[in-house]
Amino acid sequence: MFDPTPSPRLFGLPPGVDFPQMLYHGLMQRLAGMPPEAIAQVEIYVNTQRMQRRLRAQFDRGGASLLPRIRLVTDLGRNVALADVGPAVSALRRRLELVQFITLLLEKEPDLAPRAAIYDLADSLAALLSEMHDEDVHPEVIQNLTVPDASGHWQRSLKFLQIVERYFGDQRLHAPSEEARQREVITRLVADWAQHPPAHPIIVAGSTGSRGTTALLMRAVARLPQGALVLPGFDFAMPASVWARLSPDQGPGDDHPQYRYARLCHALDTNPDTVQLWADAAPPCAARNALLSLAMRPAPVTDQWRLEGPAFGDVAGATAGISLIEAPSPRHEATAIALALRDAAESGRTAALITPDRGLTRQVSAALARWGLEPDDSAGEPLSQTAPGRLFRHVAALAGRRLTTDALVILLKHPLVAAGSQQRGQHLLWTRDLELWMRRNGPAFPTHADLHRWANRQAGFDGRHDWVDWFAPLICGLEHIGARPLADHLESHISLCEALVAGPGADGDPAELWRQQAGRKAAETITMLRNEAAHGGTLGANDYADLFGAVLSRAEVRDPDLPHPDIMIWGTLEARVQGADLVILAGLNDGIWPALPPPDPWLSRDMRRRTGLLMPEQRVGLSAHDFQQAFGAREIILSRAIRDAEAQTVTSRWLNRWVNLLGGMSIAGKQALDDMRDRGAKWVALAHALDRPAHRMPPATRPSPRPPVDARPRQLSVTRIEKLVRDPYAIYAEYILRLRPLDPLRQSPDAPVRGTILHRIFERFINESKVNPAALNRARFMEIADQVLESDAPWPTARRLWRARLERVIDWFLESEAKRRQIALPAETEAKGALYLPELDFTLTGTADRIDRTAGGEWVIYDYKTGTLPSKDQIKYFNKQLMLEAVMIEHGAFDKVPRGRVFSVGYIGLGAKSDDPSYLLAPGDSDTIAGELRQLIGEYQQRSRGYTSLRATESQRITHDYDHLARFGEWERSDPAQGEDVG
Fold first, then answer.
1. Contact (CB, 8 A) for 611 and 557
2. Which of 235, 286, 302 has its CA nearest to residue 664?
3. Residue (of 830, 921, 908, 920) closest to 869 by Cα position
4. Cis peptide before 443 (omega within 30 of 0)
5. What radius of gyration do the chain's Cα atoms show?
6. Stretch among 346-350, 416-420, 438-442, 589-593 having the lowest mean pLDDT
7. Which residues contact 619 (CB under 8 A, 6 or more apart)?
8. What local confidence, expressed as pLDDT, does residue 913 receive?
9. pLDDT tens per residue, range 357-388
10. Mean pLDDT calculated for residue range 512-540
11. 232 secondary structure, DSSP code
């Protein structure tokens, strides 16, 4: 097929061409006139399955003929003919083995690393091991490095690096990995070809030779009598002087997109000018390729911009099909891209989004979903984010931890739980009722008994107990799971998930877990883990959850039936497999494209250079080549976000070069750049318009609703009177609209809970010391505190902090308590009462924390405060709680407290040592407070009085429960209230 040549046979295709299509055409041109069976002798190696599929599709469309052998480069490592090499083990088994070795090392030397880092260390070591096999770097090379090590970091690293020694050499202790077998097979194959070169054509197409093993194969194929390389995205426009700059002898140039080709030519003792065009196919825009080639010149020769830039002829033609989107945020960038993709699909064009930013692709997919469009994402959806994946992760996270209310509700609400049962609807109804009950009543860590306590609320029998008896034994008690073999963890995990999916009753079908594409992928992934579980050793519950989550995160789910055929999302590698009318290069910010180099815990840059491992610049150069390849499409959109969630972003270095070149080369270049930005700005403007309503709504006014008098509350507690004064709208929302804030799903040790628990401690202490004055001592108080904290505060950290606070304040409390008892002795705690005002048909209710009685029969009221004590002005104008309780006592409103005069009221601060403010009540004070109460309630029993929002709030920095309902923010606190009759 090929004529003899004195030099290795190198071909290339320029950026922008449809590589599989041109590869097919070039092959058929060379086979023209040859017998039909000649094509069957051709052997083609490609680098990706997508490339393999597209090339086969070209032959399917080309008419009836025999087919060449189209294989993946990685298929060589699976050659069963070399049985003595041994079969390759899966990457999962290798990681499980590394986990065991690292665990043993940390058990001997726990100071080397935290146990939580075991899986990250195993992943990092596995990546280094693969790279060492790929680049043929033996551990001895690393160990023989001379490294200054004043901190001892290198010696610690060597202890981990010694683990990889067992995977090298003829005396290796373990079966080879896929990378190791690939290297060994190709090394043998190259040696065999040197002795017995094959006579049939062998072509390596689509690879750049970025990895050592692939580069070894490519060099060997190029020297075969009928071997050839077809290089993607070869820059035929770059002059020889620039190619010379990229030679490995001229210093580092790894970050240039054509560097790999320069290194390949150097290794083959040839020059880039010997690379021939594979097929007579002009790129969509040769002028654009030439202009980008100029923009991507290596840094030492960018001065050529001044010489060649002004002389560049067809700037307008080179940039005619380019738009530049500079969006204000990632959300607007995603919306603008989605609009462009939708427009292309509706006009009958194919469109591809190329970006390494998976967060951006998810945002674009979400934006497309509003129009019912699902893109064909080459990466698919992470298995861990699908319904089966989330269920497995939720269940794995329960083991070894106490069950929390939020974990329970999340699990019961999962779309697959009880999906195999006929009672799914009833299951959801009971789940909702249970959730509301736990939000209101707790507990923070529900048990089987707590769940039955909820079921007992329902009078009669409606199946709730059976429902609780179905799921409670499955998930209660999982915190006791300890260390056990990986296989045992896995089988128990699978059985538990299947039982949850089957649901209550005997008719449940656990197979619902494994249906759909995601379920089948989950079954495949779990089967793989099950097959390798024997190599996982013994794991604790938390370690198993981390391992299982890491395995799920590596699997992806693709549904080939749903995606739109003309909207595609590709990774950067797919840029070599051109075939779209519109290509969008998105996420063009430094740190995204190119990505930041991954952290290397083992080797520095200099150590990598000395050992022959990959440098970070090589990854940047490979990304640059993908960028250059995609840039040559007929129509492209360049996209970036000016800001992210945290700060201003930095433009990708390649886009920055392009912009700087156009902006400074000539007037035509600057005009072309402005035109690119104008075309991109149209998409950004559409994205903004999509978020704006068609008609601008006027801002809301400050509300002051006036409901009918008969709808207004006829009963309020003493604490709600202050709310009525400060924020009447909150009373309107809570008592008239009957809207109450939803309690948090997970009960946390916040200030209200702390106050409730501390009240219980002091209530028990005061009641006990009232009967037995000898109990009024520090030791007994701390005993009571420990008992209450243990039963009512299930948070170990909060329990210790609250106990420490009590220890700091108890001595002061006992001292001040002695002074209080010289005035009055405790009579009642948590006393409840209600005062009816017949002239207003209104009832005032209240619960007094503590009521003491003087020797003369007068009453003293105390209120415990865990926070800041109110000031005198606050008590005078707003905080009327104690004063109103005094009115209630003097009117005989408390059941267990006889009517009598109140001597004083005061606060007892529990937060820190402070002077307790007490206020003596003079004769007539109670009548004054009662008159003010009647006047206040009477005002709100008139239709003309509205419930104004935020009338006199204590602090502008505090948010309130009903601010959103009042649409606060559309109006200011200084705005006048707008009364409105409602109801």
1. no
2. 302
3. 908
4. yes
5. 38
6. 438-442
7. 594, 595, 597
8. 53
9. 989 999 999 999 999 998 988 777 889 999 99
10. 91
11. T
Provide the percentage of residues in the chain whose pLDDT is more than 70: 96
Per-residue tokens: 719: 């604490």
Q: How distant is the alpha carbon of residue 273 from its chain centre?
A: 48
Distance of alpha carbon 463 from alpha carbon 426, whole angstroms? 10
Domains in the chain: boundaries: 10-84+180-283, 89-174, 315-374+566-691, 383-557, 743-939
CB 858 within 8 A of CB 886: no
Structure tokens of 577?
Answer: 């497999």
Q: Which helix (H) or strand (E) holds 620?
A: helix 616-631
Task: List all residues 6 or more positions away from 490 whose beta carbon is below 8 Å from its beta carbon.
Answer: 526, 529, 530, 533, 548
- pLDDT exceeds 90 at position 887: yes
The dihedral built from the CA positions of residue 95, 98, 102 and 103, taken in this order, carries a sign that is positive
74: buried, middle or exposed (CB in 10 Å: 19+, 13-18, 0-12)?
Answer: middle
- The answer to whether 98 and 108 have CB atoms below 8 angstroms apart is no
Instruction: Decide if pLDDT at 912 tops 60.
Output: no
> Average pLDDT of the chain?
88
Nearest CA among 658, 690, 653, 688 for reference residue 673: 658
Residue 166, classed as helix, strand or coil, is: helix
What is the per-residue pLDDT for 344?
Answer: 94
Per DSSP, the three-state class of 965 is coil
How many Å apart are CA 827 and CA 852, to the nearest integer?
5
pLDDT, residue 79, reads 61
Q: What does the alpha-carbon distance between residue 489 and residue 483 come to, in Å, rounded to a whole number?
A: 9
27 CB-near residues (< 8 Å, 6+ apart): 39, 42, 44, 68, 203
- In whole angstroms, what is the distance from residue 566 CA to residue 568 CA? 6
Among 753, 835, 752, smallest CA distance to 794 is for 753
CATH fold group of domain 743-939: Lambda Exonuclease; Chain A (3.90.320)
What pLDDT is stored for residue 461 in this prediction? 62
pLDDT one-digit tens code per residue, 248-283: 766 667 888 999 999 999 899 999 999 999 988 788
Place of tokens 């009590």: 806
Position of tokens 């707790």? 442
Cα–chain-centroid distance for residue 970?
A: 32
The reported pLDDT for the residue numbered 968 is 93
10-84+180-283 to CATH, choices 3.10.25.10, 3.40.50.300, 3.30.565.10, 3.40.50.150: 3.40.50.300
- What does the pLDDT read at residue 211? 87
CATH superfamily membership of 315-374+566-691: P-loop containing nucleotide triphosphate hydrolases (3.40.50.300)
How far apart are alpha carbons 642 and 934 in whole angstroms? 60
